[in-house]
Amino acid sequence: MLGRVSTFLHRCAPPAVRRCHMHDILFQIHPSVSEALAENRPVVALESTIITHGMPYPQNLSTAQEVEAMVRSQGATPATIAVLQGRLHVGLSHDQLLFLSRSPAPLKVSRRDLPYVLSRALSGGTTVSGTMLAAHRASIPVFVTGGVGGVHRDGENSMDVSADLTELGRTPIAVVSAGVKSILDIGRTLEFLETQGVCVATFGKTREFPAFFSPQSGFTSPHNVTNAEEAAELIEAMLSVGLQSGVLLAVPIPEEHAAAGEITQEAVRMAVAQASEKGIRGRDVTPFILQRVSELTQGRSLQANMALIRNNARVGSQIACALSELQRHKRGGASPPRREQVVIGGINVDFVAKAETEKLLFGQTNPGSVCQSYGGVGRNIADCMARLGEPALLISAVGADTQGEALLSHCSHMDTRGVARIPGHRTATYCAVITGGGELSLGLGDMDIHQQITAQYVTQFEDLLSTADLICLDGNIPVSTIDYVCSVSRKYAVPVWYEPTDTDKAPKPFLSDSWRNLSYTSPNLAELCAMNQTLGLPTPAVLPGEVGEVLGCAVALCRPLLEHLQCVLVTLGPLGVLLCGEQEGGAVRLSPRKQPRTHGLCAVHYPAVPLTPGDVVNVSGAGDSLAGAVMAGTLRGLGADDSVRLGLLAACLSLASPHPIAPSLSAQTVSLETIQSHAWPQPSCHWIGQ
Asked: 17 pLDDT band (50/70/90 cuts)?
């Protein structure tokens, strides 16, 4: 009855009211985006044709997630825009990204296509013009894409001109791109933009207009801006004057990828010539050229494309943050202090060899697969935190070699300003041999460079360390560096989290009184024993295996550490985790206390999320995902239950990924909403005493 009354009232309403109602139905803004906009925080719009038409699954999904992670790591909120089942969405959840990436026949949705796609309840990826329109409706001033469309070759006869250019001429949005592809007529494209009244500027030291894969096109931009602040001032001027045209900011491909870009550029020239020889024209030209370029470069064009898009996202996010700060200053509002955290630890190239069988036969070749990924405990934790929207400065060291370059390129969504590049040293490498069931059988590491993360090197970051909300150390760094950071912690009352990494390194802070300045640590049971042994405390000769005995042993070993530490998070593998610390409201208090402890101690056991052996692909980053997500929850001020469940969920996602930190980790996939949708095993609380 209520539904029929609502329908009747809607039909009887004035046309303007009906249009408003339809707008609410057809145009939906994700809560994270609407919240950021309401609080005047920076938001970056992202198009979705790269997902639907840019590359195949699962590369399209992982690229979209990497780009969103890059935006978050720079302090902005990503808003990927797409049409899903007849609704224009500004900001997508993980499930919506997955749906879009797997759609069998998604449409390419430009401005002209929106009425049809919305009216027929269809789905598709928005082009530059479609995304600009939606972003402007949502009041998002900065939009990042790969490259914009342009005037096609022979466009003076065919009249084949991209709608992106006319949209730039009538929508006041700043579009951050790598210019236009060289398969287009760049000269006529720039002329057309001038006619449309579009302000074009190259981001960098020169006015050279980039041609997507190449930093040089042979054409010059009318203007240039050298940094994010100048770009923000340009955009603010455009918005303040009330121009109804946009700004195109052209970002050259990064220098480290320019060589690969030139190879791709040469392949583009060959493909264009072949298209002409074969008489391919019109709408068939672009698909042919893209296919031929991929074949000619043996897939390297895709890697250059992804690097370019990540760089655009980094630059665009910095511009959005600078614009937000500039607008806040003009309003006279005080800028809230930005939360800072620091991770100091190992970063390395991983080689993961996974056997097909549960048992390995030594002395002969075992069937299996070998893949390369990027790890290191410190890197993994910083990666996890960046993906969850709590980016941390990573302080580490790599060699001045090709592996170090590749590693830093892969970590472009993270804050790696603190990673030293040291000539004459090899970038750390680690080889893990994993059984068919996902368990580590053997590990080999070349980690000597981590000894270069010296106290002397870290002292240059003391200003940041002294004001950080949290510092995380892993056991790979030298004892002297740990001692130095603990002295900073004592002097400035900064919480420190220690991730021990293995039984040999777990005792490092406990060789002196440095451990008394730690706030958190996350050992497994064997590492917890090593810590106690270093303090001269009794430990069991053999670690127990039954659940009750394991929990009792862990509680007893945590008790002496809690004389000084805030919390001890004991990882128990398939048995889950045990969180020990000060009791508060029936749970463990995670936030650091400023006064002496007034409550007793307790331990809460959180059972692991049940997984089948087939779900486990790689165990190397599960503990780091757990720790990083718990830290992210703590920094947000969440309680122990929510923070630990965020950690368990992050660990599950990484267990199912070939990478130490799953690319699917994000503020959407690991959130309060996602943990509330799970049926979690009930935790059990154990009283420790005073």
From this structure: very low
Which amino acid, 312? Answer: N
Give the domain ranges of the chain: 26-140, 145-336, 341-689
Over residues 96-112, the mean pLDDT reads 92
The Cα-based distances of 88 to 18, 24, 46, 92, 457 in angstroms read 18, 10, 13, 10, 50
Owner of token pair 């004389």: 563
CA 197: distance to chain centroid? 36
Q: What is the CA radius of gyration of the chain?
A: 27
**Sign of the C-alpha dihedral, residues 118, 124, 130, 132?**
positive
Token couple for 235: 């955009």
Burial class (CB in 10 A: 0-12, 13-18, 19+), 689: exposed
Residue 212 Ramachandran class (φ > 0 left, ψ -120 to 50 alpha, else beta): left
Given the residues 68, 181, 505, 508, the one annotated as active site = 181
| Residue 255 in this model has a pLDDT that exceeds 90 | no
| Choice between 421 and 361, residue whose per-residue pLDDT is larger | 421
- Give me the helices (H) in 477-600, please: 479-492, 525-534, 547-558
Instruction: Give the pLDDT of residue 282.
Output: 59
Name the phi and psi angles at 559, rounded to 5.
-50, -50
* Strands 107-109 and 77-84, bridge-based pairing: unpaired
Q: Do strands 577-584 and 587-588 pair parallel, antiparallel, or not at all (unpaired)?
A: antiparallel
Task: Please tell me the distance from the alpha carbon of residue 557 to that of residue 568, in angstroms, as a whole number.
Answer: 10
Q: Which two tokens stand for residue 390?
A: 């709590």
Judge whether 191 counts as a catalytic residue.
Answer: no
CATH 3.40.1790.10, domain 145-336, yes or no: yes
pLDDT above 60 for 2: no
Query: Could you give the CA distance from residue 204 to residue 226 in angstroms, rounded to a whole number?
Result: 4
Percentage of the chain with pLDDT > 70?
91
Determine the pLDDT at residue 20.
Answer: 39
- 26-140: CATH architecture: 3-Layer(aba) Sandwich (3.40)
Instruction: Compute the Cα dihedral for 311, 316, 319, 320 and give only its sign.
Output: negative
SS (H, E, C) 430-446: EEEEECCCCCEEEEEEE
| Residue type present at position 15 | P
Count CB atoms within 10 A of the CB of residue 157.
7
β partners of residue 80: 46
Confidence category of residue 581, pLDDT binned at 50, 70, 90: very high
* Token reading at 3: 């539904």
DSSP secondary structure, 559-587, as one string: TTGGGT-SEEEEE-GGG-EEEEEEEETTE
Reply yes or no on whether 181 is catalytic. yes
CA atoms 367, 368, 372, 378: torsion sign: negative
The number of C-alpha atoms within 13 Å of 324 and in the hemisphere containing its C-beta is: 24
CA 330 to chain CA centroid, Å, is 31
Residue-by-residue DSSP string for 70-93:
HHHHTT-EEEEEEEETTEEEES--
| Percent share of the chain, pLDDT over 90 | 55
Question: CATH topology for 341-689?
Answer: UDP-N-acetylmuramoyl-L-alanine:D-glutamate ligase (3.40.1190)
Would you state the pLDDT for residue 288?
A: 77
Domains 145-336 and 341-689 share a fold: no
pLDDT tens, 380-400? Answer: 999 999 999 899 999 999 998
Q: What's the distance, CA 236 to chain centroid?
A: 28
pLDDT score recorded for residue 339: 60
pLDDT digits (tens, 9 = 90+) for 49-80: 989 987 788 888 888 988 998 898 888 999 99
Identity (one letter) of the amino acid at 41?
R
Distance in Å from the first CA to the final CA of the chain: 61
